[in-house]
Fold DUF3775 domain-containing protein.
Amino acid sequence: MQQQLDREWELTIGPDTVRLFIEKAKAISAAVNEDYADGSEHEVELDGNSRDNHHHDGLVEEQTDNLTAEELRQLIDDLNVDEAAELIALMWIGRGDYGADEWNEAVNEARQRGNRRTSKYLLGMPLLGDWLEEGLEALGA
């Protein structure tokens, strides 16, 4: 069983907010996994040998997925500098780049790297939801 660390830190970003991000990130990831599971995403076989890419830009299902991603992007973009740094640090801890005992170091590193592309950086990670969840668990939050 994982033991909780003595808290020598306080989260600026609320754990419930991070859980909302986790939920949205997992929804995005699930949608991507369903679309791309067979490795021939959006391809239509015309005859036995040729294929054509088939895109459904106007379908409601894809707009819903895009809205989820856009919502998460907007939520991340609305974070202040400290909250954004903590979100990145949580992801790094969950991914194993830092241990929970290196929280302050991870936050400082994230703050130094901080820029306006935080949402693009985080949304580019297919396991974002899992890593954020593991980061929260590692910190006992």
